[in-house]
Amino acid sequence: ENINTIPNWLTASRLVAAPFIGYCILHDHHAWTLGLFAYAGITDLLDGWIARRWNLGTVVGTIIDPMADKILMTVLCVALAAKGALPVWLAVIILGRDVALAISAIYYRWISLPPPKTFSRYWDFSLPSAEVRPTTISKYNTALQLGLMGMTTVAPVMPAVDLGTSLVVMQCVVAATTVWSGASYVFSKDAVKILPHPKQQPPAEKDDEEKAEKEPEKKL
Q: Locations of Basic and acidic residues compositional bias (predicted)?
């Protein structure tokens, strides 16, 4: 499939922005952190809308879009926990679930890859072999996690607004939905779909089909 689409490039830009967001958090560039975080959120909404509006969705997009979200979430969790803005126990829950899902994705990609199974073919996303379908609770959990990270990054920029109680409530909600969403991937039968491999016809069968197509033309 053609992976050079606008939604995929927007997703790739979020992947590039993630380490810069982490750098800004660790060096207390709060305004830059908030701006880059807003960019990531806008492009996340925009690439999905463009893909649906102009039918530019790809199997690769279903893989790298959640990957970009998880990498951004990983960077945010590590950086904010290192700065003391996010509880360590919550960062462990979020990252633990994401690590488990990443290991599962690696496994399903390998077992679904059509032969020959080589390292270069494994990383060739133009050869889709499995499709990841986020569960409903996982979608809500992602939105809640991003909401929590947004509130945490806004807090230093707006010190006059007391977000302490709201942050504690959001942290508890995110912890509960993170555990719930991780369990949903285990018990859901539709979360991962192995794509069928195209079967090649033997040369003899192809020749017979070509002859059958030419015979009506001769009769005419």
A: 209-220
